[in-house]
C-alpha cells in the first residue's frame, strides 16, 4: 500500500520552511522501506481527502486567509478528521483550523476543527521555544522557533501539546499547541519534525509505520537547538 503524505499549500504557507516536515516524513518512510507518495498541493489545486497524513505550515496573514477559504470549499479536512487521519498544523495552519482567527485586522471564520480561537496578541512573539511535551514521543523536550502576531486560546477542557519552558507558544496560558483527536497544532517552526524526530516517529506510528531506528545524525539538530536554548536561558538567568 502506498501511503499518501499531503503537504497543503507549501506555495503560500511555506514562509517558515514548514514544508521540510514533509521531507522528514519522506526520509523516514524511505528508511522504513515503505512505499509513499508526497503530494504538494498548491493553493489552486484540488485538495485530496483520501490522504494518510496531512501537513499545514505557517505564513503571513493574507495567504493564511486564502488557505482558510480554500479549505472551507467542500470541507476536505473534515473528511480527513472523520477518517481519523493525522493532521500536523503549524502556526497559521493551526490558527485556521480553529473557530476563528484574525488576519490583517479582521476576525475570520476558521474551519472549526479545533476547540480554539485565535486573537491578536499585544506584541509579536518571536524567538526560540522549548517545551516539555505531554505526548509520549520519547523526548523530554521539544524545540522550535516561533514568529506570530496571533495568540490562541484553548477551550478549558482542551489538551495542549506541551508546557512552555522557554518562549511563548499559545500566548498567555503557559502552553503551546493542542492535541485534539487526530490533529496536532503547534506554533513551532523549525521545521518541527526536523528538530523533534520523536514527534515524526509518533505521527508515523499513527498511520501504522514503525519508523526505522534513528541515528545520532537524526538527533543532532534537536540536541544542538536544546543546548543553544538552554545556554541562552542560563545566561539570561545568571546575567551573563
Ligand atoms: N499570520 C499568523 C500570525 O502572525 C501566523 C504566522 C505564522 O504562521 N508564523 O499570527
Describe the structure.
The protein has a single domain (3-237), classed as Class I glutamine amidotransferase (GATase) domain (Rossmann fold), CATH 3.40.50. Helix 1 (20-31) crosses helix 6 (197-205). The termini are far apart. It has helices spanning 20-31, 61-72, 76-82, 92-96, 192-195, 197-205, 216-237; strands spanning 3-8, 36-41, 53-56, 87-90, 100-103, 106-109, 116-133, 142-154, 162-166, 175-176, 178-180, 183-186. It has 240 residues and is of the alpha/beta class. The radius of gyration is 17 Å and the shape is globular. Glutamine binds at residues 16, 58-61, 64, 91-92, 147-150.
Summarize the structure.
This protein has a single domain (about 5-235), classed as Rossmann fold, CATH 3.40.50.880. Helix content is about 30%, strand content about 30%. The protein has helices at about 20-30, 60-70, 75-80, 90-95, 190-195, 195-205, 215-235, and strands at about 5-10, 35-40, 55, 85-90, 100-105, 105-110, 115-135, 140-155, 160-165, 175, 180, 185.
The assigned structural class equals: alpha/beta
| Distance separating the two termini | 55 Å
The percent range for helix content is 25-40%
How many extended strands? 12
Radius of gyration: 17 Å
Major sheet details: 6 strands, mixed
Broad CATH class: Alpha Beta
Task: Name the shape in a single word.
Answer: globular
Low-confidence stretches: none
The DSSP helix count reads 7
Look at the structure and name the CATH superfamily.
Answer: Class I glutamine amidotransferase (GATase) domain
Which molecules are bound in this entry?
glutamine
Beta-strand percent range: 25-35%
SSE run: EHEEHHEHEEEEEEEEHHH
CATH architecture: 3-Layer(aba) Sandwich
Q: Compute the average pLDDT.
A: 95
Oligomer class: single chain
CATH topology: Rossmann fold
Give, in spatial order, the strands making up the sheet with the most strands: 2-1-3-4-12-11
Q: How many domain regions?
A: 1
